[in-house]
Amino acid sequence: MTISIYDLYSHLRTRNNQKFTQIVTESLKPRNPDILYDIFGQLGVNQNHTILDIGCRYRVSASQTLLTR
Questions:
Q1: Is the pLDDT of residue 15 over 80?
Q2: Directed axis angle between helix 60-67 and helix 35-42, to 10°?
């Protein structure tokens, strides 16, 4: 038997579940993603350094930051 996510959690939508609504509508106050560029720039890395970028998928973010410094 296959059950969809929609069906699995339908009980949360169909009744007045105030606690659930409060949790899912609460903001986690995320910071702007540009903060990562600021932190990277503060490390003092420049074009003469070798870096290992293992979290940016295509290494574009770190490379572009170095090129603009």
A1: no
A2: 60
CB 41 within 8 A of CB 69: yes
Query: Does position 39 have pLDDT exceeding 80, yes or no?
Result: yes
Q: Which domain holds residue 21?
A: 5-67
List the one residue out of 33, 54, 51 whose CA is nearest residue 63: 51
What is the Cα–Cα distance from 53 to 63, expressed in whole angstroms?
9
Supply the pTM of this predicted model. 0.35
What's the total number of domains in the chain? Answer: 1
> Which token pair is 46?
């420049």
